[in-house]
Amino acid sequence: MAHDPHTPQFEDHTRAIAQGRPLTYTPEQLHAVHQIVAEGGNPLTDMHDLPRWEDEVGIDRIINRRVMELDPLPTPAQVLTELPLDARARHLVASSRDEIRACLYGQDDRLLVLVGPCSVHDPAAALDYARRLEHVRRELENELLIVMRVYFEKPRSTVGWKGLINDPDIDGSHNIQKGLLLARKTLLDVLGAGLAAATEFLEPTSPQYISDAVSWGAIGARNTESQVHRQLASGLSMPIGFKNATDGSVKAAVNGCFAAAQQHTFFGIDHMGRACAVETIGNPDCHVVLRGSSSGPNYDADSVAQAMEAVRAQMPADSAAAHGLIIDCSHGNSGKDDVRQAHVVREIAERVAQGEPGITGIMMESFLEGGNQPAAPLNQLVYGKSITDKCLSWPVTEQLLHELAEAVRTRRWN
């Protein structure tokens, strides 16, 4: 009898999903593998009893010489079955995507505000933040369309903690299966609090596990020129913001928007985790995000005007990108300094109040506590404080949101 494609086929796999544990190796084998790696060895040659699929199918070890296949993941169908969106969450995702599109195309004069932690490392603290933000969202919903940053994947310039999905225990154990489940559960909790979610898409297969719960997505500065990520954006169901490149190139982001609006065919996986050819129809809701660069900020009025000129030279006049852009108040626009970030937000609020064209929304990095701290396991961390970029504190964030709302009210009167 054929299996239901939405039902886990194996009882032990279902238990593994719930427990967030790997399936391939025993705990003893995993410990031995990690010990050899820590000592600078190669478990593929130093462990003769390590099970390898090449041996099982009679293939000499001429491939995967630098890969340890430790943990087959559950399929997207299994994860979405174990942690489904309820009717209320589905309605929130669909309606918030429509509201974001309305802002992007100028049909809604509210300011789009993407605000939340640089990255989620503690789901409990993220939910605490979400509940506080939801209270303010309801208070200011006539002026601001507030969407919470819920970022799980962190691109690194060299190395470092890569986010909740990659290393949920923040200890180098890289239990990605656990991370996927935690990430999805966090998104469900944020939706349950009444907030739409925004995230950055980094790994090209992870959207199959979480994108149904996301209302706005970002392609980061390091990936804005990546063909893989432009193709990915072309098939995503929500509006996508392409950030300018780390060197400040806005043209790279504009090209990303143009490319993502086209049809593409590329390698991917389906809901059962099978390799497949993905065919997309293109995403017309892509737009530029100015995030500064290694050489300085680009949120000033001249930079916005020049960016919009570059967009309109390439994108259709009726596109989301041609209407306006989003300003990221962190990163290169504030030197990743939370105090400076607050100044940037206030300057943009003044310009919004004056009616400056081209500013559709802003992005702010904010958490319960201001600043940041070194990455470490949760029991060694200050609760609600970022382990990646410095964030605005909650009291400062709340004040800034009220100032942005007042700016929108002033703009309407002018």
Q: Determine the number of helices (DSSP H or I, runs of at least 4 residues).
A: 15
Query: What Rg, in angstroms, do the CA atoms define?
Result: 22 Å
Query: What is the name of the CATH superfamily?
Result: Aldolase class I
Helix and strand composition category: alpha/beta
The total number of structural domains is: 1
Q: Return residue spans where pLDDT drops below 50 for at least 5 consecutive residues.
A: 1-10
The averaged pLDDT comes out at: 91
Task: Examine the secondary-structure arrangement and name the CATH architecture.
Answer: Alpha-Beta Barrel
Beta fraction: 5-15%
Q: What key attributes describe this structure?
A:
TIM Barrel; 414 residues; eight-stranded parallel beta barrel; two-stranded antiparallel sheet; globular; alpha/beta; 10 strands; 15 helices
Explain how this protein is built.
The chain is 40% helix and 13% strand. It has 414 residues and is of the alpha/beta class. It has one domain (76-413): Alpha-Beta Barrel (TIM Barrel), CATH 3.20.20.70. Strands 1-2-3-4-5-8-9-10 form an eight-stranded parallel barrel, surrounded by eight helices. A two-stranded antiparallel sheet has the order 6-7. The longest helix is centred in the last third of the chain and has 20 residues, at 394-413. 43% of the residues are buried.
